[in-house]
């Protein structure tokens, strides 16, 4: 269908609007006919609610899947990954193999997590196995570090319950849901400071799964040197890497924003740990991301009018084991530095090139499978359809040491299924 794309957004960010205008797209009001709507998660919830009964037409695209929260709500992400593990175990997949202690060997990439108040008794049982451990509590539906705190005593949980005006853990209706996760208290440090990775992953379709990794991710650093000391449990400048938190610190650097590019991290790790070890680490990060997407694919509403750019948060511990912390449905498009602004402008540009092929109004044949030359800084992370057609879709049933259809070509000393080129 010929013609200019008519766009709407309820997120007034220059990196978005400049990209729309560069393409010559036409801005219209929400109540007019539109083709492309970059909307907040609140708006997408309203658009696809049962009450509205709204259905997108063939020539409309939005930037979220209807039930994206299956991946981006902290409690639902964990629930879906647990279900995925059980399904693989039931199928007899080698990926669900456990060690002598009953711990998953390959699928142990999310910290031990419980939902509160629902899983309080299970949490207490786990806590008492290692009473010196530290746990981190997060509200399920919030972002940017809001409402997060650390605990190392059961009495702190009880205080939280009292403070939130709930007399019983059994009474759940009036209480905001939280997750409580075992805190990674041995993070890899650089310059004595904790950091995490923010990686951008674009999903164009869940069935078949097709996803892309953005090459220009970055690390976010804390402004205060890390210590596991209990005296610093309340110091979020030590423990939380969120820019929304760190920008209020006395030592926050407004020039680089406390960020490193992923390429800088690679260079650092190659020089301190070796190239082979570094390559294995990034292979495993990519593998974890695909497994998390496969975990939610069966329950995701695969509307052909939708795509989504997720912000993955990964922490690396001092043994170079990556941990999936959470996935964000609306990664921040606010620019804290000049480099940040350039990165996010290019991110949106490359995302639109994939989501809206040729920058034209889509039609019923729209399949979001662009040629390689328009990917920009994205690379294909996983293409289920192509993997099945050429026989590389083996990662769900591969025995350790066999090809898996996952990006990379380096075998694991640990015996984890070999990672081969993802299609």
From TrEMBL:
The keyword Membrane does not apply. One of its GO terms (cellular component) is ciliary basal body. InterPro entries: TTL/TTLL_fam. It is found in: Cytoplasm, Cytoskeleton, Cilium basal body. Pfam families: TTL (PF03133). One of its GO terms (molecular function) is tubulin-glutamic acid ligase activity. The keyword Membrane does not apply. One of its GO terms (biological process) is microtubule cytoskeleton organization. PROSITE patterns: TTL. Keywords: ATP-binding, Cell projection, Cilium, Cytoplasm, Cytoskeleton, Ligase, Microtubule, Nucleotide-binding. It catalyses: (L-glutamyl)(n)-gamma-L-glutamyl-L-glutamyl-[protein] + L-glutamate + ATP = (L-glutamyl)(n+1)-gamma-L-glutamyl-L-glutamyl-[protein] + ADP + phosphate + H(+). Residues 388-423 are annotated as: Disordered. It comes from the Eukaryota. Belongs to the tubulin polyglutamylase family. Part of the neuronal tubulin polyglutamylase complex which contains TPGS1, TPGS2, TTLL1, LRRC49 and NICN1. Interacts with PCM1, CSTPP1 and LRRC49. This is Polyglutamylase complex subunit TTLL1. It comes from Lonchura striata (white-rumped munia).
């Amino acid at each position: 269908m010929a013609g200019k794309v008519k766009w709407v957004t309820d997120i007034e960010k220059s990196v978005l609007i400049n990209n729309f205008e560069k393409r010559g797209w036409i801005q219209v009001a929400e109540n007019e006919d539109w083709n492309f709507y970059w909307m907040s998660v609140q708006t997408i919830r309203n658009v696809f609610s049962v009450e509205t009964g709204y259905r997108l037409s063939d020539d409309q695209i939005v930037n979220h899947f209807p039930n994206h929260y299956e991946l981006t709500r902290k409690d639902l992400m964990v629930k879906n990954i647990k279900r995925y593990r059980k399904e693989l175990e039931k199928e007899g997949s080698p990926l669900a193999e456990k060690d002598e202690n009953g711990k998953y060997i390959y699928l142990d990439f999310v910290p031990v997590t419980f939902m509160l108040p629902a899983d309080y008794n299970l949490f207490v049982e786990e806590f008492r196995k290692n009473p010196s451990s530290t746990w981190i509590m997060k509200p399920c539906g919030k972002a940017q570090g809001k409402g997060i705190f650390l605990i190392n005593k059961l009495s702190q949980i009880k205080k939280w319950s009292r403070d939130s005006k709930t007399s019983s853990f059994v009474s759940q209706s009036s209480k905001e849901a939280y997750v409580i996760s075992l805190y990674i208290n041995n993070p890899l440090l650089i310059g004595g400071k904790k950091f995490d990775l923010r990686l951008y992953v674009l999903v164009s379709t869940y069935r078949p799964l097709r996803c892309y990794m953005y090459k220009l991710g970055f690390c976010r650093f804390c402004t205060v040197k890390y210590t596991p000391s209990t005296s610093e449990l309340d110091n979020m400048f030590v423990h939380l890497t969120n820019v929304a938190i760190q920008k209020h610190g006395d030592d926050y650097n407004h020039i680089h924003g406390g960020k490193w590019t992923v390429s800088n991290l690679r260079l650092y790790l190659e020089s301190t740990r070796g190239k082979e070890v570094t390559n294995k680490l990034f292979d495993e990060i990519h593998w974890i991301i695909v497994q998390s997407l496969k975990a939610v694919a069966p329950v995701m509403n695969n509307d052909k009018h939708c795509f989504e750019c997720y912000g993955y948060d990964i922490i690396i511990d001092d043994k170079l084991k990556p941990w999936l912390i959470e996935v964000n449905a609306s990664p921040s498009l606010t620019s804290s530095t000049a480099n940040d602004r350039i990165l996010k402008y290019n991110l949106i540009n490359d995302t639109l090139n994939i989501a809206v092929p040729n920058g034209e109004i889509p039609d019923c044949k729209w399949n979001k499978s662009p040629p390689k030359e328009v990917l920009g800084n994205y690379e294909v992370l996983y293409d289920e359809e192509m993997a099945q057609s050429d026989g590389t879709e083996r990662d769900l049933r591969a025995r350790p040491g066999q090809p898996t259809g996952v990006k990379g070509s380096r075998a694991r000393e640990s015996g984890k299924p070999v990672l081969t080129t993802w299609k």
